[in-house]
Amino acid sequence: MARPLISLPSYRTYILSICWCYALTLAWSMLWPITGFEFNPPVYAETGTPSPANHPTLNQAKRLIDADQAEEAITILRRFLATSPKPDLLDDTYLLLGAALHRTKQDGDALKYLRQLQTEFPDSEVADRGKLMQARAHAAMDNLDLALPILTGLRNLSKDDSTKREALRLIGDIYAQKKDATRAIQAWLDEVALGTEDQAEDVRTRIRELVSETSDKKALDHIRDTFPRSFPGDLASLRLVNLYVGRGEEHRAIRQIQQFLVNFPMHPQAAKTSELLATLQAKLQSNQFFIATVLPLSGKLSPFANEVLSGIQLAVEANRDRAGSASVGLIVKDSESDLASFFDDFSGLLNTDRPLAVIGPLLSKNLPVMAELAERAHIPLITPTATLPNVRRLGNYVFSTALTFQLQAKRIAAYAIKEQGFRRFCILHPDTTYGRELARLFAQEVRQHEGEVIAIESYKEGETDVSAQLKRMKAEDLKRYGLSVPVDQTKLTGKLTKLDKKILYTPGFDAIFIPGRAADAGLITAQLNFHDMKVPFLGANGWNSPDFARTADSSIDGAVFVDGFFVDSPTPTVQDFVGRYKKRFQTDPTVFAAQGYDAAKLVIDAVQKGASSGEAVHDQLLTQPDLSSLAGPAAFGPDGTLNRPLFLMQIKRGRFLQVN
Length: 660
Fold this sequence. Notes:
The protein has 660 residues and is an alpha/beta fold. A 7-stranded mixed sheet has the order 7-6-10-11-12-16-17, sandwiched between helices. A 5-stranded parallel sheet has the order 2-1-3-4-5, sandwiched between helices. It has a 3-stranded antiparallel sheet with strand order 13-14-15. Strand 16 and strand 17 (655-658) form a beta hairpin. Helix 14 (250-263) runs antiparallel to helix 15 (270-285). It starts with 7 loop residues before the first helix and ends with a strand.
C-alpha cells in the first residue's frame, strides 16, 4: 500500500489478515491439481488483506469477489476509479481490479491494472501480491515464459516467506505444464524449506502425483539421476520398473530394480521390489530362446513403435500359450532412451544376450550400423517398417517385413494390367518422397508389362486446385489417344445457350494412379470428373484412412488401392489376429502391428522347426519358399524383402471392400 505509517491497531489487523490469507492459500493449494490447472485461486490469496485501506467501496468489492460475483466487483471498482480516489487507495484498487478481471478470464485487462500498480507504486505493501497476480494472468493466457521471470524475481527478492512459497508453487506448476518434471520438482522441494511440516507433506503429495502420472522414460531417468539417493528419485525408479514390466521389458526392469536396491537398501518398498526381481529373473531363466526388439519406444515416433511392439508381443504370447512349443522370451530395448550409448548397448545385447533375431529398427537411416553389428554377431536383423529398397545390400543377415514402395507399385500395376487389362495410364502424385518414388516405380512396372504412361504430373500436398495439372495432362493425352469432339448444344436443346460450343473430351488412357494422402485424393478425383477425365482411379496405402470412404465425394466410388493390411479382411488368419489383438490391447491393429507380428512369428516358426541359433534362423528365413504371413504364403526375395500377398481394397458406397 502507499501509506507510509500504520497505527498499532491497524498493524494487528494487518498481521491477522496475513495469517488468514496464509491459511486460505494453503487450503486452496491442497485442492489445486498439478496439471491442467487454472491460475485462479481465491481472492484472499490474491489481494493480501480482507479490508484493503479500510475503505467501504474496496471492502465491498473484495466481498463480491470472494462471493464469486467478480463482474459486480469490476463495475464498482471502475466507478470508484472514476471518482479520482486518494493516491493511497489506488494500489489496493488496482490489485482488486486485477484479481476480479482475472477471475472473469479478462486477463489482458487485468495485466493493464497490475502493471499500473507496479509502475505507480513499486514500493507498495501489495506490490508483491500484484506480481503474483501478474504471473497468474500471464500463465492463464499461456504466456508461461513471461510468468516465469516475474516469479523467479519474487522467489529471490521478496522478504515474505509466504510470497516466496507461493511463487515457488507457481514456478513448479508452470514447469509441470511445460513437461519439465525435474525443474517442477526442484521448485516444489525449495518450497518445503519455507513452510510447516503439514505444508511440506502437501508438497510431497504433489510430487508423488506428478511422478506417478509421468510415462516419459527420459523424464523419469532425469528425475532418478538428479535425486539418485533421495526423494523423489526412489519414486522415479519404481515408476520406471512398472513401465518396463508393463511393456514386457523384463531385462530393463531387472537392471532398474538392482540399481534401486543399491541406492535405497532400507526403502519401505525394498522387500516387495526384491520379490519382483526374483520373479522376473525366474521368468527370464525359464525361456529357452529370446527375440530382441529395438524400437524408439519414447520420443515422437513412440506411437508407431509401440504398435509394432504390440504385434510382436502378441506373437510371443500366442507361442507361450501353445502346448509343447519351445519357450521364446522377448527382450525389449528402447533405442531412444540413451542415444549416446545406443550402439554400445546394442552390441552388448547381441554378444551377451545372444537373441535368435532382432526386430528393428523403425527407420531406414538406423539400418546400416545395426546391420553391420548384426552381421558380425551372425544374428538376423528384421526391420518391420523401414522402406529402404534392397536391404540385403547392407548385409546377408538383414531382412524386411515392411510394406515397401516397390511391393505396392508391383501389386497395383499387376491388378491394373493383368487383371483389368488396362494398358495406358496417367500419374498424378504429391511432390513428396512417398509420391515421387511410388510414381517412378509404378511407371517402371507399367513399362515392364509393355504398357504406356501418357503423362506424369505432381502437386503440393494440401493443394486444393489441380486444374492446371489436369489441363496439361489432357493436352498431352490429346496429342496421342484422347478425343476432343465439339457438341452443338442447339441441336440437343432446341435453343441457343452459352454452351453452344461445348467440347466433349474422351480420355485416351485407361486409368490414373494417384499415390497421395486420402485427404488430397478426394479433392483430386472430384476435379478429374469435372474435367471429363472419368476413368478408374488407382491409389496406394495413403488412401487407407478410416474416414476416407465415408466422407469422400461419390466420384471416388469404385476406386481401388493397395495396402499391406486390411483390418476388415475376411481372410481367416487376419480375423483371428484382429480378434486376439483387440482382446489384448482394446484397439484395432494397424499395418505396423501386423508387420511386427509377422516378423516375430517368422522367427518363432523357425524355432518350432528346429532352429536354435541366429545362423539357423537366418538359413530358414533365407531358404523357405512358403513362410507363413498374415496375408498368406510368403518368401524373402534376393533383396531381403518379404514378398507376401498384399490387400486390394475398393471403395464402394462409403465402405472399403477387399477385392482379392
